[in-house]
Amino acid sequence: MFCWNQDMIRFLRDASEQSDYHRLLAARIVRELPENARVCDAGCGLGYLSLRLAPYCRQITAVDRSAEALAVLERNIAAGGPQNITPLCGEIENLPPREPYDAMVFCFFGTAEETLRLARAQCRGRVIIIQKGWSEHRFSLGRKKMNRRSYADTLALLKELEIPCRCEKLTLEMGQPFRSLRDACRFFELYENSGTAVTEEAVRARLTPTGRPDFPWYLPQPKEMGFITLETGDLPDSINRN
Question: 6-12+19-176+222-231: what fold?
Fold first, then answer.
């Protein structure tokens, strides 16, 4: 289970607010949403995708198990953000809607099996699944394979279950800006997973100087992902509703 801490939240907040990533991703998602839809952003994290989707939806329900992560979204809403977002804290399977959602967005959320089960239980329309398109840890100083399922694994499962879908690959820049070299070292201390020692020299080799006084260092990171669209009506009875 992924657990947020304040440094992780701080780094992702900076990356989200200094990037067009969520705006561009939302623009792609919106093309798949029904008009005037009630949408669930499942595992929304800090809620930056919800903020970008909200102008195109009747209502967004942003669900995450982390109160600390949702606090960022709540502050952004209170500071003049869209008012048609409802943050919900808890395990999504324990928070069913009164009426099924018109669409659900699962952006880097759980396993494919979990996603399909939740969609079957809580949605009556379109399901958008965005999965990792990379196979190695992006923020390790050395090379390290991931254990979690990827986009290709999800497509294989959909084929096995004979679930029709539309799919494509996307690449959007979602790098990490840093306020100092010390901050950059702290970032790699959090996410390094290959056993490589985190040294200033090794970290500096990954960074690009920006010349900016507020964020003098930047870690470039093209984010490859798989984008899958399917309909809940095509999900087979073998997928458990409970």
Answer: Rossmann fold (3.40.50)
